[in-house]
Structure formats: C-alpha cells, structure tokens
Amino acid sequence: MTLMADNAAQLPARRDLIVDFAPETLRAPFALRCGAFLIDYILIVAVPVLGLIFSLLIDDNPAKASNSTMWLIAILVGVSDMIIFPSLSGQTVGMMICGLRLVRPDGRDASAGRVILRNTVGYLLTALTLGVGFLIAAVTPSHRALHDYVSGTMVVYGRKRKA
C-alpha cells in the first residue's frame, strides 16, 4: 500500500499543455471566423425576433408585442454568449460549432480579463472603425483582428488535446 501511495505522490498534476503549438498553422480562416460570428449574431437576435413573432400570433396589437421581457432575455443570451462562455471555455457558441478557440498568441488559454477586454473594448473599437478592425483579420498573416491585438489574443482552428 505504501508503494502505491508513494508512486501516486510522484505523479505530476494533470494540466493542459499545448503540444507543438504553431500559431501560423492553427490560425482561424477569416471565412470561418465570419461564420462563427454570424452564428452568434443569429443566436442573439433570434430571441427578440421569435418573441415578436410569437406575440403577434397571440395578439394582433403590434404595440403590445414589444415586450421588455424578450429584450431582457436577449441581453442575457448576448452576455452569456459573448462574455461568460468565452471567459470559462475560450469559445462562444458560434466558435464551438465552428471548432474555433480563443487563446493567447503563445497558445495558453486567454484569461477572463483578456476575453472581457476583447469582447467589450475591442469590439467597440472595431465597430468605431466601421468594421475595418474586423477586416484586418483577412489581410494580416496571423489572421488577428483589431480586437485580438487590443486584448493580446488570437483565434485558432483546432481542439484541445490532453498531453
């Protein structure tokens, strides 16, 4: 018994390692990033649109159909998809579906602070440039957009593998 306990104590703690990480080969294609963003957008916009359609089917008064509850739900879905999920897993729902992951340029997981900076301040700066900040990802060799440069992150195409 003591031999087993001694061997167990010598085993290193299991942790995530990035094996042979090469950002230039794993960078996410621009079209795939657009697809993931479109999925996220549809998910967020679907809540108020479906709520409006449902309200119009039940009641013929369109003024009554603008229910604040559906907008609150849409905001909660948006915050969950754009802030909470990426902070916990490094992926939005669209990124999960497309097989994309948000990481630091060295391959380590992006911290919650970096994700929040990227998806708030970074997206705001990208929007202020009228989308040019997002189009930067199409022409730079690393495929990083303005919000990626602001937060020190990058989007890669691939899944995590335990070493």
Quick description:
This protein has about 160 residues and is mainly alpha-helical. It has helices at about 1-10, 25, 30-60, 60-65, 70-90, 95-100, 110-130, 130-140, 145-150, and strands at about 100-105, 155.
Structure, described:
- The protein is mostly helical.
- It has one domain (26-157).
- It has nine helices and two strands, in the order H-H-H-H-H-H-E-H-H-H-E.
- A two-stranded antiparallel sheet has the order 1-2.
- Helix 3 (30-58) packs antiparallel against helix 5 (68-89) and helix 5 (68-89) crosses helix 7.
- The two termini are 28 Å apart.
Write the layout of secondary structure elements.
Elements: H1 2-10, H2 23-26, H3 30-58, H4 62-65, H5 68-89, H6 93-98, E1 100-103, H7 112-128, H8 132-139, H9 146-151, E2 154-157
**DSSP helix count?**
9
Secondary structural class: mainly alpha
Give the integer mean of the pLDDT values. Answer: 83
The Cα radius of gyration reads 21 Å
Query: Which blocks of ≥5 consecutive residues have pLDDT under 50?
Result: 1-15
**How many strands appear in the DSSP assignment?**
2
DSSP helix fraction:
55-70%
Secondary-structure element series: HHHHHHEHHHE
Strand order of the largest sheet: 1-2
The termini sit apart by 28 Å
